[in-house]
Amino acid sequence: MDVNFRADADFAREMDERDELASFREQFVIDDPSLIYLDGNSLGRLPKATIPLMQELVERQWGQSLINGWNEGWLGSQERIGAKIARLIGADGDEVIIGDSTSINLFKLAWTAVAHNAPRSKIVTDNLNFPSDLYILQGVARLAERPLRIQVIPSPDGIHGPVEQLAEAIDKDTALVALSHTVFKSAYTYDMTAVTQLAHNAGAIMLWDMSHSLGSVPANLRAANADMAVGCTYKYVNGGPGSPAFMYVRRDWQDRLHNPITGWMGQRHMFDFDLTYEPEPGLRHFLTGTPPILSIAAIEPGVDLLLAAGMDKLRAKSILQTEYLIYLWQEWLKPLGFSLNSPRKAARRGSHVSLGHPDG
User: Fold this and answer.
1) Does one domain contain both 40 and 81?
2) Are strands 355-356 and 339-340 parallel, antiparallel or unpaired?
């Protein structure tokens, strides 16, 4: 990056003045302008457009329309907003849907991948993965109808993904490879296409957790030929605390896989109330119970802002900001014993920077 950084406030102000995305700041609730909020990778800010949307949903759609709201857009909201998220991650509109939490979506997809890839008996992941993902995979292994082991590949340094070791571990006995696209601690970001190809070369199914890359790192699931992905919407998508997660299943997989938690939202003729389950064709059969309409609706304003800004422009700004932060670390914090616990190369780094210190 050809920028001559300076460690002074005037330089930062100059960069703010040149920022073509600066106007988007006005689209968010900023209660305390003096607060320097660095935790958007945990919970994003509240878009201003979400407030009147929630008021409309509660007062008119719920308050006045009552149960008619299901026929006035509620039932289709999971697919409609999912199709918008598909535009952010390089997928087709019918390959993405809003479902349950990330953990439940992950369980559904991991379980069906393992069931489909019998008799293979191994799941491969790494020790940089989010702990909840490992808990889910452990649960899948316990519930599997055959002995199943999880091989956790260690990072060489606690920062970078163990790509070479993964290549050695993924073999003809591997049913599933499950990794975080962007790692939650170090922000290391895998080459999605290359790692997916490693899995496919061995006949394994590839499942990506995009919770820390959705809305911050451009991705093209179609170009990567990814099989499955999940990701939360309360971080960079700004969908609100506990907002539901998305689920991606490549189109050619959808009718070959089975939802392990079947329910009436995935039933082919749900309002016939038949006592025998018959799955809806396509991605919808991965749905289970009645969706949380209020929480789903709150996702859309944040998605719309991301689409308006454009992922390429957001990524360019993110790289500029993180490069500047690393420059300031080198100028101010490195002499004080702070370490850089994120990749130095921007191409392998997400949108957050992690620092460490021997004293904690």
Assistant:
1) no
2) antiparallel
